[in-house]
Amino acid sequence: MFNDTSDGNSCIKSIYLQILNSMIDYKYLYDKDEDNSEQDYIVKLYSSIMENCFHGCDIRLRWGDTIPAACSKVGSQCRIDMRVTVFKKACVDLSAVEYAKNESIDKYYIKTK
């Protein structure tokens, strides 16, 4: 969308534009009285912003309820909404993201060695 700028901020500018456009195109996402689902936010807002953050590098976002290797190793079958991965002979998880409609301390907390 934006050409590379001399200050290297084209990605940041693009993300700001995405957020501003979402405020026009999806006004209801910002209305606390609307009954939006977790997927409303993921599909219409977060996914495009997150993909833009990692565009053009070796990092891959893995969307959908996938189970990270760290969970499998400890016997947990928790399904994570988004995994930030890189491929070095095998998929390596850098981070895991769980989205929620409302904040809660009851989400996944995984201890690994």
Q: If you had to describe this structure to a student in words, what would you say it looks like?
A:
- With 113 residues, this protein is of the alpha+beta class.
- Helix content is 33%, strand content 22%.
- It contains three helices and three strands; from the N terminus they run ααβαββ.
- A hairpin with a 1-residue loop joins strand 2 and strand 3.
- Mean pLDDT is 79; it is low at 109-113.
What is this entry, summarized?
This protein is an alpha+beta fold and 113 residues long. It has helices at 10-25, 38-53, 69-73, and strands spanning 59-66, 80-88, 90-97.
Oligomer: single chain
Number of E strands: 3
Q: Alpha-carbon distance between the termini?
A: 42 Å
- Main sheet makeup: 3 strands, antiparallel
- Report strand order across the widest sheet: 1-2-3
Give the averaged pLDDT, no decimals.
79
Number of domains: 2
Order of helices and strands: HHEHEE
Which of globular, elongated, flat, extended, rod-shaped describes the shape? flat
- Helix and strand content put the structural class at alpha+beta
Spans of 5+ residues with little confidence (pLDDT < 50)? 109-113
Strand content: 15-25%
Using the CA coordinates, give the radius of gyration.
17 Å
Count of runs of 4 or more consecutive helical residues: 3
Helicity range:
25-40%
